[in-house]
Amino acid sequence: MLVNLRVNGTRHQLDVDADARLLGVLRDTLGLKGSRFGCGANQCGACHVLIDGAAVASCDTPMWAVEGKSVTTVEGLGTPDSPHPLQRALIEEQAAQCGYCSSGVLISAAALLLRCPQPSAEEVRQALERNLCRCGSHNRIVRAVLSAAAERARSS
Amino acid sequence: MTAAAPPLPGSLEKNRRLDRWLRFSADGVLQVFSGKVELGQGILTALAQIVAEELDLPLAKIRMIAANTAASPNEAVTSGSLSIQDSGAALRQACAQARAIYLAAAAARLGVAAEALRIDAGLITCPDGRRTSYWDLAEDPALEHLLEREAGALVAEKAAADYRVVGTAAARLDLPDKAFGVPRFIHDLELPGMLHGRMLRPPSASAKLLALEEAAVLALPGVVAVVRDGSLLGVIAERGAQAERAWSELARLALWNSTPGLPDASALANWLKSQAADTSVVAVKGTTEAANVARTLKAAYAKPYLAHASIAPSCALARCDGARLSVWSHSQGIYNLRRDLALSLALSEDDIVVRHVEGAGCYGHNGADDVAFDAAWLSRAVPGRPVRVQWSRADELSWAPFGPAMAVELEADLNAANELIGWRHTVWSNGHGTRPGRAASPALLGAWHLEQPFERPAAVNAPLAAGGGAERNAVPPYDFPAWRVVNHRVLAMPLRASALRALGAFTNVFACESFIDELAHATGADPVEYRLRRLPDPRARAVIERALLRSAWRDWAAGEGRGHGIGYARYKGSGAYCAVVAEVEAEQEIRVRRLVVAVDVGIAINPDGVANQIEGGAIQAASWTLKEAVRFDRERVTSDSWEHYPILRFTEIPEVEVDILRSGQPPVGAGEASLGPTAAAIANAVYDALGVRVRELPITAERILSALE
Fold it and tell me: Got the DSSP string for B355-370?
């Protein structure tokens, strides 16, 4: 089927299987490798992307479900020249070890900041509950999200 | 008779060519070749700091080259928290020698004494202001071969007092790519003409493939080949989704026999103790006069199989070009992998190149080598085209090696004055090592399922002098007058086991430090004082005192269902000193609220990197201690998803504080030091909170209830 969607602000019309998974299309068709495969079953958060502002597992989202939607991946959050406050804070706080969960964590955190610009530490933990991290970077990640929220507050 | 020259530091002794380690390249950077690999632990950043320091270069001028068997020094396996000792020490000396060589060349060119020259940011300057640089000299055709030589006699290294880069919290070199989603992981690698392979694993380790009608699979769109050899089975397709669909169809069509062969998961300690074993006496000190023994206290501890449970499934690429094989892998030991690939595929090692590409966090011998074999084996069906294989989550959680189950029994002889006069520590466990490259037969999963299968190598333990395996940290750190430490290496291995972070130290420290608390309570002593009185090593005492201070141990306010506890160990008896204080609350389950960790790693090359590793280790250990166990029935592993293999989540993560003691002692690794002490501290805190001693991990509500009975 033909699916129309926006990815990181760019319009695409893609001829794909209706049941093809969004993660595979992002990584293999569009070459956006930032979203990670972790489990394929919406259980680890590594593949999270924003779909119309909400953090969603792209690994089990079929393409028919994203018709007309706007998708943002970690590449769409920011770039080295123009980083998202969360990306800047992740580097500033050195909030990763292997970094494989980072993309999905950043996306879940971005979704949180969209609906709750000044979250408490507890709200950050709740928002990241669906993201697994095996290296134990959780506390640094929470600090990074809080620091990004504080930076936003200062600059707005 | 002449004295032998002292050995060169670390891996330089076995890889003596300086240009094997260092190359000033024409684009103005220094290429650094380490044989150690980035596992998510930040080692390449720490090694770059050592190089920058010794050569007086800015970090930005240093490019760490990912290890590959064609160009890098052979440093065997990146494991055992040894990279700072092995590769760091080698690079420090190699750089000191390179620095001396370049200074001499600069002195000759500038016509001054080498002692008069100053190096800053790679520029070599005379007192009169004339200058050259490492790269000027390296580009001089007359001098370009300066590093094409073996390391000479030891050259004095920079004094620690002069360090400017080492000891600073340099930012990780790899994190920007990971923050912006830049392709960097092996999972992101795309090669021209790449195909996608998918393995169909048997339903259980002992299962045999009886029949397969593959015609229907071959007819599916994009399918290039179905490859079968005995019970080893895979499919290759043009695209990933096509391989996935073909795999589903293969799974539907394949007919297996499978027989129950696994032990009772609910009685693992009994099973371990009932098995045939290779028994060795690990350590003996003194003797205990039976007549002086007033009573003997005993306790038995146990730990289940644990999964590595990395967030990414294992992945590899391979391309077969005639007799030559190229492999891209996140293996911990690319040379060892190459050796076992040669053995299993009947190739010459010289015809194989293995290149390291970063994977997700690696905590020991996981599926990286196995999936490299899978890709290599499949690639032989499609010469000239690279094949990418990525395991499924279920395969990752059920086919990669597990950290072995362990049982530990401890006994303490007390005299009439309640003084400890004898200590016995007995371990039952599979060996903790089935890594590739070390046995007569390849340690690669797929090779055991071929029609002519290779024998599965036995799990062994490294010698205690190298840290040991199951018996790691089984020798107590306390100055008891007598002890006897025995290891029963269980020979049967129904579940595949190998090295997982800290090896036996996790369980041995959990057991030893739990039992120390039990002894203190049994003799009416304070657990902290009990330890401090028996620890002669001032560095050991210092980390304990620091953890106490930082956690305000002595001001602890007891409360209903709240408890605190301490655990201590020096990793391997020769590595980092670490003390942990845990604070817990008993709710439906045990909640760890806070972990305070004090650590002495000698000179911390990168204090932030050390803190990150120590905190990560403590959190991973908290997860193992509270939640984790591989589950299986009599036939197969059943904990094959995150739902059935839960790990600690964000809302369950304790606050963690890491305090690094300042030290001028030689640097040691930090990756594994905090795990054992954390488990013990939690168990001791649970006892403090509830008066219940849980001796079998994980410490779940169910275990607490059964310990109460």
Answer: EE---S---BS-SHHH
- Please name which of B127, B48, B134, B131 lies closest in space to residue B99, comparing C-alpha atoms: B134
Q: pLDDT per residue over B496-547, tens digit each? A: 999 999 999 999 999 999 999 999 999 999 999 999 999 999 999 999 999 9
Q: CB-based contacts of B288: which residues, under 8 Å, 6+ apart?
A: B413, B421, B422, B481, B482
Nearest alpha-carbon partner for B396 in B307, B302, B331: B307
Partner-chain residue, chosen from A24, A98, A140, that has the shortest CB–CB distance to B360: A98
The verdict on B345 and B427 lying in the same domain is no
Residue B208 lies in a domain: yes
Residue partners of B276: CB distance under 8 A and separation at least 6: B490, B491, B492
Q: Does A79 touch chain B (CB under 8 A)?
A: yes
Last residue of a domain, which of B335, B364, B390?
B390
Q: Torsion-angle region of residue B494: left (phi > 0), alpha (psi -120 to 50) or beta?
A: alpha
Tens-digit pLDDT profile for residues B587-627: 999 999 999 999 999 999 999 999 999 999 999 999 999 99
Task: Please give the structure tokens belonging to residue B541.
Answer: 């005492």
Q: Which residues of A touch B393 (CB under 8 A)?
A: 38-41, 43-44
B204 and B154 belong to one structural domain: no
Q: Which residues of A touch B42 (CB under 8 A)?
A: 97
Please, which residues 39-68 of chain A have a Cβ atom closer than 8 Å to chain B? 39-41, 43-44, 46
Give the domains, in start order, of chain A with CATH numbers: 2-77 (3.10.20.30), 85-155 (1.10.150.120)
Contact B186, B330 (CB under 8 A): yes
B128 and B82, same domain (yes or no): yes
